[in-house]
Write a structure and sequence with these properties.
about 180 residues, mainly alpha
C-alpha cells in the first residue's frame, strides 16, 4: 500500500539522517563511514553512495584512507555490486601495487565471493597470478603461493597445480641468483 511504502521511505530517510549525524560527530572513525556506506548500499541510494568516499576521505586522516577504501570494496564485493567492489580494489592495487595487505584482502574477499556464488575461476586465478608476479618478500610470497595452490587443488587441474609449482620454483631461483 501507499502508506507502507511511505513508511519505508521515511525509515530510510531517518536511517540516513542518523548516519549523517554520526559522521558529523564521529567522522574521524572509519567505522562511522562504513556504517553509513552499508546503510546507503542496502537501501539502494547509489547516487549518494558514489559521493560518500570523497566526503569521507576529506574528513579522515590520510593514514586511514586505504583502510576505508578497502572496507568499501569488501562491502561492495560481499553485499553490494561486485563490479563496484572490484573497481575500488583495482584502483587501490594500481595506486599501491606493493601493499600486500590490500592484495591479501582482495584475494580473500574474491575467494569468499567465489565460494558463495561459484562462477568462473579465471578471474580469481588471474588475480593470484598477478599477486604472485609481484616482487614480494619470501614470507608473503610463500603465503600467496600456498593459497594459490589450495585454490588450484580445489578448482583447477593438475596442469594448473603444476603451473603454481613452477611459479614457486622460479621465485626461489630468482631469489637465489641475487
Amino acid at each position: 500500500s501507499t502508506q507502507s511504502t511511505w513508511g519505508q521511505k521515511h525509515q530510510h530517510i531517518k536511517a540516513i539522517e542518523a548516519c549523517r549525524h554520526m559522521c558529523r560527530k564521529l567522522g574521524g572513525h572509519v567505522e562511522s563511514w562504513e556504517i553509513y556506506y552499508t546503510v546507503l548500499m542496502k537501501r539502494g541510494f547509489i547516487d549518494e553512495l558514489k559521493h560518500l568516499p570523497r566526503n569521507a576521505l576529506e574528513v579522515l586522516s590520510k593514514d586511514k584512507h586505504i583502510q576505508l577504501m578497502t572496507k568499501f570494496a569488501c562491502l561492495e564485493l560481499d553485499q553490494g555490486s561486485p563490479e563496484r567492489g572490484r573497481t575500488i580494489f583495482e584502483g587501490l592495487v594500481a595506486k599501491f601495487p606493493k601493499r600486500t595487505d590490500i592484495w591479501s584482502v582482495y584475494l580473500d574477499t574474491e575467494t569468499k565471493l567465489h565460494k558463495k556464488n561459484g562462477g568462473a575461476v579465471d578471474r580469481l586465478r588471474n588475480l593470484y597470478e598477478r599477486a604472485t608476479s609481484l616482487p614480494l618478500s619470501t614470507k608473503v610470497m610463500q603465503s600467496f603461493l600456498t593459497r594459490f595452490m589450495e585454490f588450484e587443488k580445489k578448482y583447477g587441474t593438475e596442469k594448473h597445480q603444476e603451473a603454481v609449482k613452477q611459479r614457486a620454483v622460479q621465485y626461489v631461483e630468482q631469489k637465489c641468483s641475487k
